[in-house]
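Write out this protein's structure.
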Amino acid sequence: MNKKETSEIKKNFSDKSGFFIMERILTGFIDTEKNVRCCKTSSCLTMPAEEHEVYEETLKKVLNTNVGKNFCEYEFPNEAYDDDMPQDILYKLLQSELKDDEICEKFMNHIAENFSHDGPYAVITAYCVYTIRRKDKNDEYADGEDEVYRYLITAFCPADTAKDGFAFDNEENELFRKLNTELIISRTPSEGFLYPVFSNRSSDINHVMCYMKSASKPNISLVENVMGCAYIMSPDSEKTSFKGILKSVIGDDLDYMVIKTVNEKIQEVVEENKDDTDRVTVDSSALKKIFADIGIPQERVEMTEPVYEKFCGNASLTASNLVEKKTVLSSAGITVNIKPDFSDKVRTSVVDGRRCILIDIDDPTIEINGLPVTLE
């Protein structure tokens, strides 16, 4: 499921869309001991408008268009289709349209047993229907060609007590300290998922999209334990693995110019494919070519594939996750930040027997702590 497909579902996730209906809501609350404290279904068609809007607002945040980072697609392994396994549970929940209490309770218990979360949280699941309008060769809607995409969207929302504070007493006309003990459900989900995925403008029950609010600190239990899928590396993990590959393959030849040039080469890959709606990736073959192009010794280039497999296995790396927005040179007590457009003005060298960072300055006037200084 790419960015364009995600955007289509998100754009139409509203009562104002003539092609979308959110039919039913399943809500649950799970405490810190993993006990399901409530499990309730409601019809969205008879729900007060204000309540409906809150559910819609919260669930829509799961449809994050940052595909490949915050919103990632996973394929169910073969064992996930067995009875009472993740895909089987989700498929039966979808087929029930959230109308079967026993299936809903089984789903909520599956979440409670397998989802790891610090503190209590609410689970909000909606059964939705989206009518997919088909277009003819003249880019006009064709009669009788519509397909219906039925899906579940789930948000995991943390619950916490609000901070103590002051309130105003209208009768006494004075401020008083108010102790807050109620568990407040966040309207911003920390995790969530969409099932089945919307691929090639059609339903695909063999895949699921998982949402993480924090891509740098993912809740792997959602993917591995709740969905039973193999986790895909986070952006930070990809960058760490990439740095490991560079150090292992290039070794002593790793210097400022090599790091700068590799970064520029991967940036070129991103730019050349910026209109591609699918995730732009880099694999061992692409890195091997980059290393060869920039003049890394051939014996080092040949190490790329085994080193890559050691760090990443068969997984490809997301190109945009590897690109550094700026170059940072660090040494004991010194840090220099360099924007991409000015990276050519920096060099490392040995001057009078001392290792130095050299910065070319066209304008003789520079600022130090905000004060102008002229270099003679």
